[in-house]
Amino acid sequence: MREAAGKGATLRLLAAAGLWLLLARYLLPLASGWAPPWVQRAVSWSTFRALAQGAGLGLGLGLWAALAPGGVGRLLGARPGGRSLLASALSAPLVWVGSTALALAIALPTLMEELRTRGPGASRQNAGALAAELTGSSLPMALLTGVVLAALAEELVFRGAVWSALQAALELLLGPLDVQEELGPTAWQRVQGWLLRGWGATLGAGLLFGGMHADMPGGVGLVRVVATTCLGLAAGAARTVSGSLGAAVVLHLLHNTFSLAASRGWFAGLGPSVYGVPLPMLGGAAQGGAGMVVLAVVGRGGRSTEAAWPGLSRRRTGTTWWSG
């Protein structure tokens, strides 16, 4: 039966996403705890982390391919177009500036209290091994682990597996829309359409992404949660609007690059900062935003209306790497 098959497929998607999420969360601490002493002496922490990230990525993809209907292709969505990739690249400075400023504004009272009671070293102490790795490891290794592998692994998990599973669950729970043309959509149908267009999955995956980064105490931990939640929501929006995981990966890669640059002090000589954001980055964010406006205006001219109630269809149309 169609409904039973839908339930079964959705449960498999949720199971695959949940298992991959657990793998991403616990593989590195478990592997580091079980590693024999000779491995700890022979391999640096950065190298060990890169190997664990690569292993987790491979295991997660294999797990998804074995359990999830549609296989790995479902993670990728539509083939990424040049316009969507360019839009993600242009939005990256704006997302980084906005998430950094908001996170620091929210955490500022906590950070100031820590500075008063524990001294200037409190934030670095709370940041722990992650800050030491970003600032102390070689640049190629920091780029590999903190930028490339982190972005690929996290986007495949959150905007790939988790997003797809949540979207399937919402489609199963909320079902198709039944809009009467003469009356138009009700308020609930508008909310339902918003959720089914991918924004419900974006919200859920983004909040979960931020929650998974609640691994540091104090003000630095608060900055990390707020900033990663903003990044997760922005990457989910890129996935939803473009229909492609590639757009989210590009945004995440550039965001992590800016974060690495900030942690290594590359922005220190670029003039004054506002809530931790150097003024040249504010200019870059403004230019990126202007570029996105130009793209939107140019693209709108060739866009046609697909339905009497645009945006209420259950699934994006277009060429995809999966079907069903």
Instruction: Please state the structural category.
Output: mainly alpha
Number of helices: 11
* Mean pLDDT figure: 82
Largest sheet: 2 strands, antiparallel
- Major sheet: order of its strands? 1-2
How large is the radius of gyration? 21 Å
Q: Please, could you describe this protein's structure?
A:
- Helices cover 76% and strands 1% of the residues.
- It is an all-alpha fold.
- It has a domain at 81-300.
- Strands 1-2 form a two-stranded antiparallel ribbon.
- Residues 1-5 and 302-324 have low confidence and may be disordered.
Keywords:
two-stranded antiparallel sheet; about 325 residues; 11 helices; mainly alpha; globular; disordered N terminus; disordered C terminus
Question: Secondary-structure blueprint of this entry?
Answer:
Layout: H1 2-34, H2 37-42, H3 45-67, H4 73-76, H5 82-118, H6 122-136, H7 139-174, H8 187-212, H9 218-242, H10 245-263, E1 273-274, E2 277-278, H11 279-300
Antiparallel strand pairs: 1-2
Helix pairs in contact: 1-3, 1-7, 3-7, 5-9, 5-10, 5-11, 6-9, 7-8, 7-9, 7-10, 8-9, 9-10
